[in-house]
Amino acid sequence: MSRTTHRAIVEVGPGRVRRLCCGTAVAADDEMSERYAAALGAIDDQVALVDGRPVTVASLWHDALRSLDCGSPDATKAMIVVHPSWWPASRVGVVTAAANGAVMQPRSWLLRQASTAPEATVVVEIAERLVSIAGDSKRERLVAVPRRTGLRPVAEEVAAIVAQLRRGPTSVVLIDAPSAVAGAPAVATLIAAAVRDAHNGQTAVVVDHARLTQLAHSVRLPEDDLAQGAAAAVGVGPRARKLSGIAAAGVVLAVAAPAVAAVARNGAPATEAARATFLVEGRVALTVPANWPTQRVLGGPGSARVQVTSPSDPEVALHVTQSPVPDATRETHEPDETNESLKGTAERLKRAIDAEPAGVFVDFNPSAVSVGRSAVTYREVRAGHQVRWTVLLDGAVQISIGCQSRPGGEDAVREVCEQAVRSAHAFG
Length: 428
What we know:
Number of helices: 11
Helix content: 25-40%
Mean pLDDT: 77
Low-confidence stretches: 225-274, 329-337
Strand order of the largest sheet: 16-17-18-22-21-20-19
Distance between the termini: 43 Å
Structural class: alpha+beta
């Protein structure tokens, strides 16, 4: 029999970096607390500003994890790092590189320690901008619901998806309520009630920070499992190969199963044409067709972008780019302020378009409305196809979605385009 052992468990995200267990509690000083916040806030970037000085994000994460290593002779190698299950592989890769041999685990792994039958457990994780649902403990297949509507509609939508993912009437639904996520306890309570109401008393358990800490203290793993996890973290195991392959493409599908669009509001399955997945890239998530291949495009005309292409026609595609909003200091959803920000965005885009050859960018509209969202729109004309661009603002992020089709063939991408624009949002 293999021996079991216990390791320090460190929580990275959502919202905080902290040690959940091992020895004494950790009270971070102000300097380290600032570095933890900077590491999380800049995880999608290369460099962050700390005290007005540029610091590489890699060094921030290295320092953060070293400060939480319990003073072990093996440093971070004696650590299990738990990250949000919905994080894209690019984020997991940043922490993996800094962890230097630590075992990386999705948050759902720790949450499932609360169940006596992990394989029959559905895990719900609440984040600032989305709620993820995992129904497969082996492949970690996720479904995501954006938190763009009221709390109750989100709870009902999550309950409908749980019905699709749960395994038998005895399955348990664990609902993560992270203390660092604003409103998480209220959302968790509503989701638990919706799950119980929809499924005749289905067991739904809310896991708060105190309960998560208890789980972390009680975890004991066979040493061979820890060795496999450490091997994957440094890039020699099958999980690491999978992550590195995805990261190399620059794209992560945080949802591997049909996502929200695949479940109608009334709980009925959607048509095959509507089957979709959440594409997560950097700080942006949006819904795209589940069977359309995704790649990063770095060359050719236009900005570096993510391209999602129809499997039946290479000239039918979605393009997604993102950038920080200049001078954005806080998030706002007030209509007047959003329109004022869009006005500045429109002016910058117009200057860039005017600098291009005539006839490449046409039909510029600085105050358009696209599927009910305020936007700047224009059309890009290229050989063999055209791209209709919709530029949105969500907080401090500018999201640009290009809908590509052959000349006169806009119907081929219209439904997919509207779905992408409607669902696109930034998250932290």
